[in-house]
Amino acid sequence: MTLRIGIIGCGYKGSDHIDRVANRINGATLAGVADIKQELAEKYAQKYNCKHFETGEELIESPDIDAIMVVTRPHDTHVPFVLKALEKGKYVFSEKPLSTSADDCKRVVEAETKIGKRLVQVGFMRRYDNGYRQIKKAIDEGTYGKPLLLHMTHRNETTVSDYYDNDAIVETAIHECDIMHWLVGSDYDKVSCFIPGAQTKYTHEGLHDPQVMTFDTKNGIHADLEVFVNNHNSYDINCEVVCEEGTIALTSPIFTQVKTQERAQTSIPQNDSFRFRQAFDSEIQDWVNGVLADHLNPTAPTTWDGLMACVAADALEKSRDNGFVKEPVVLPERPDLYKN
Ligand code: ISE
């Protein structure tokens, strides 16, 4: 069987996934697209010879669509589409964050728990990145002893003008909210967010840049994170884990080195689509394989992971607004469906 995928949202990330499903994913075909901007959906429908739906709801309901990818913006538009897909009993992939509010994520947890089967996968693609996977393996196997500290940086070259303080957390640091606890295998105890006095002149009204965050897990591991989204440099993601007997860190994937005129230059990624291309391809292939087997990979990011990251993000926002104190991360009870 070839899985007929419908994609809702044809913007920056949506068009990247459209190209991926149409050209690089085995066992699936791009069957339809929808976007609030009709001309955009029409453009991709024509380019890839697939169906154009006027609304996301129509796409979800169509008998010609087996599974759905939700890549809409703003991010609080994900959950209504995800719930609709669940109502129709269809598998759905939601880009990160699942929502901007933990309460909305809880509605998805409730709906999926009622069905009693995992139908949702959340787009925390870093879990599929070869570098992060090597770090996790070393931690799980205790190769360098126990992990003690993590130092992480999340830098973007520049932001759009309607990107504000909360986006630095719920859109950007949400990746670390997920990856940090996944790497060390422990839930969060407390988190904090601090605004340093020195701010870049390249930021705009409503956005503090850079920001510094901390994460403390229940098993005592501490992480610091720099979020700097106007670094005027490159898409620069770093993660170093300090263990008892060594450190292990990501390197930026190097694609070419040019040597000329007594200089050597290596290219560095400009954006996430380039830096995490292998991770995005692997996560969508994993989702498609799971849907075709009618059983999502138990290690794929779940609705619960989406909720957990949002609860941590809420606590980070609270800390930033309440004078940078450490805020507890309080999760509801984890339903059996999400216990591996
Ligand atoms: C974007 O949505 C992403 O997911 C990128 O990975 C992140 O670096 C960027 O800050 C977000 O805006």
Automatic annotation (TrEMBL):
Q: Name one Pfam family in it.
A: GFO_IDH_MocA
Q: Which GO MF terms are attached to this record?
A: nucleotide binding
Q: Which residues form the GFO/IDH/MocA-like oxidoreductase domain?
A: 132-248
InterPro entries recorded for this chain? Gfo-Idh-MocA_inositol_DH (IPR050424), Gfo/Idh/MocA-like_OxRdtase_N (IPR000683), GFO_IDH_MocA-like_dom (IPR055170), NAD(P)-bd_dom_sf (IPR036291)
Using the record's annotation, list all stretches that form the Gfo/Idh/MocA-like oxidoreductase N-terminal domain: 3-124
**The protein's name in its UniProt record:** Inositol 2-dehydrogenase/D-chiro-inositol 3-dehydrogenase
Upper lineage is: Bacteria, Bacillati, Bacillota, Bacilli, Lactobacillales
